[in-house]
Specification:
Elements: H1 2-11, H2 26-37, E1 48-53, H3 56-74, H4 79-85, E2 98-104, H5 122-140, E3 143-148, H6 153-160, E4 167-176, H7 185-188
Antiparallel strand pairs: 1-2, 2-4, 3-4
Length: about 220
């Protein structure tokens, strides 16, 4: 059981190009949403909601917006970086079976949110935990999930009728996949390499490191 859990962690990928478009069985969708809804939350506020988007016209409008934002980002890159980025697919909005938009409502449970008085973003962190639960559950079910971040919040709020004060945190592309890549896309395409665990561990106090230096354990 422990090995299976860690295998799910290792298999999870940010999926863009491997969606088959086949429908997600209703019982499976319910299970992954239940997993998301079981996430821990500050003050037991459960400040998330899940907007399920399967309408093609809506997804096409969002995909166009994301494409425009991709162009904005590409225009900020130098020649070499832009060349690398040109080969990277950033979303599977139309290929996926379903869009799941996860929102954050900071007013839920307010003003007396136990645990949020000193860390205003604790509610937002709770939403991210729900997203991670959903992602891992979907991976365990053999589904793929891709987090789309190339969008402007006001656009998505207007597109989906999200009320003022509620933030759209993530558009997740979800559905059956042909496979899950063994190496993350950004690493495969040479955009960035993972840093080793040893570079992220500090003992007692945070110790700044030269980002280009490798420890003996990494060599």
């Amino acid at each position: 059981m422990i090995d299976e859990f860690y295998e799910v962690l290792r298999k999870r990928r940010d999926v863009r190009g491997e969606f088959t478009g086949e429908p997600i069985p209703e019982a499976t969708l319910t299970r992954i949403l239940e997993a998301a809804h079981a996430a821990p939350s500050v003050g037991l506020t459960q400040p998330w909601d899940f907007v399920l988007v399967d309408d093609v016209a809506t997804r096409e409008k969002f995909a166009k917006h994301v494409h425009d934002e991709r162009e904005v980002f590409a225009g900020q890159l130098g020649e070499d970086r832009a060349s690398t980025f040109a080969n990277i697919k950033i979303e599977g909005i139309l290929e996926a079976s379903l869009g799941i938009v996860v929102t954050y409502d900071p007013a839920r449970g307010a003003p007396d949110v136990l645990g949020r008085h000193a860390i205003a973003d604790a509610g937002l962190y709770s939403v991210c935990l729900a997203i991670q639960n959903l992602w891992l559950a979907a991976t365990a079910e053999g589904l793929g999930v891709g987090w789309v971040s190339f969008y402007r919040e006001p656009f998505l709020s207007e597109l989906l009728g999200i009320p003022d004060g509620v933030r759209p945190v993530a558009w997740l592309c979800a559905g059956p996949v042909s496979r899950l890549e063994t190496v993350p896309d950004l690493e495969r395409h040479g955009w960035r390499s993972r840093r080793p665990l040893s570079a992220a561990i500090h003992h007692g106090r945070f110790t700044p490191r030269d980002p280009g230096a490798a420890s003996a354990a990494d060599l």
